[in-house]
Design goal:
single chain, 3-stranded antiparallel β-sheet, mainly beta, EC 3.1.4.-, Phosphoesterase
């Protein structure tokens, strides 16, 4: 998820509901670090965060390498090309980012780019959103987008072959 902008209680509710093995927050959490859910979590600093957190992170599980950043340093509001180059540099299968508050899920040059949208303040999209990624042993990932009240957003996500 991304861009929770101080809505720590909503963030915790979603994490408790989803019960993910690992949570990725793409920045702009805008709370103190001790208000983040106490779960296995990768968190990066967004342009509105004051807490010390990495500006980017690489996380790997099950042979899938994730690159996580907020996105403001890569101009994600105008093009995915800069973040695509960075994902290639760190040899990531999946790049997760936020900043635009607009949900994106697209594959380019064999890499998957996921922006879960904003759980607090969507822009250019009708509802707040987050994404759930599920993996299988075949190198395929399944991405499903949800509203903050748990309803599936059918026009986003899908299944993608990584390798």
């Amino acid at each position: 998820m991304s861009d929770s902008h101080g809505k720590a209680n909503l963030l915790k509710q979603i994490v408790q509901k989803v019960k993910a093995d690992h949570v990725i927050h793409c920045g702009d959490f805008c709370t103190s670090a001790d208000q983040l859910p106490d779960v296995s979590m990768t968190v990066v600093q967004g342009n509105c965060d004051w807490e010390d957190a990495p500006k980017e992170s690489v996380w790997e599980t099950g042979g899938i390498r994730f690159y996580v950043t907020h996105g403001h340093r890569y101009q994600v509001k105008t093009s995915l090309l800069p973040i695509r180059y960075r994902a290639e540099e760190v040899d990531a299968h999946i790049a997760c980012f936020g900043h635009s508050h607009f949900p994106v899920c697209e594959q380019a040059n064999g890499r998957l780019f996921i922006n879960p949208g904003s759980i607090a303040y969507p822009r250019g999209f009708r509802v707040p959103s987050y994404a759930v990624l599920e993996t299988d042993c075949t190198g395929t990932v399944h991405v499903t987008y949800y509203t903050t009240n748990g309803k599936i957003i059918g026009e986003r996500g899908g299944s993608y072959v990584l390798f």
